[in-house]
Amino acid sequence: MDDADLLRSLDVDPAQLDPAPPPAERRAAGAERLKGSHPCARCGKPARATGVVDTPGHGRRWLDRCMPCLIVTTPRGGPRAPLTAMLAMLREAAQEAGVDLSIVTDEPYPAAMDRYHLTLTADGRPVMHGWWADLATAERKYTRWIGERGSREGARITLTDEADGGQLLKAWPDESH
Q: N or C: which terminus of the chain carries fewer CB neighbours within 10 A?
């Protein structure tokens, strides 16, 4: 995704963004910029991260975002190996190291041994996924995600049983009330 695509995905007009300095001055200017009260270009909340985009016709511009919007809108490259192979390697390495590993990713992963699927969506778009083999662990994570991520505007957290065809076990907020 290039800068123009990123701005389109944010629904941001580059002409509305502040001009940015040349690359040599960017680091110091960015740190200084975050001391101010610049709004997030996507939602208007106070920005906690800033970067520079370069678009034809507008040149270098500051792109300020709050942390939730930064996480949701940061372009991600795909893995070099298939996701299933990469996660299998991670599991093996964790087992060898004696480390308890929980997989959290932004892509669906249909691992047969990880039955319980936790999903965080924001404004209807998937933001984060997690899978656990143990229901009690998945339920603890569900409760933790509500506390840690539930305040995000438009957040929805669901817990499903993938071994039972994706049966919904829990959803927050509970839309039945």
A: C
158-169 mean pLDDT: 85
Angle at 47 between CA 144 and CA 21, to 5 degrees: 140
Please, what is the Cα angle at 153 between 169 and 78, to 5 degrees?
Answer: 75
Q: Which residue has the higher pLDDT, 143 or 32?
A: 143
Cis peptide before 79 (omega within 30 of 0): no
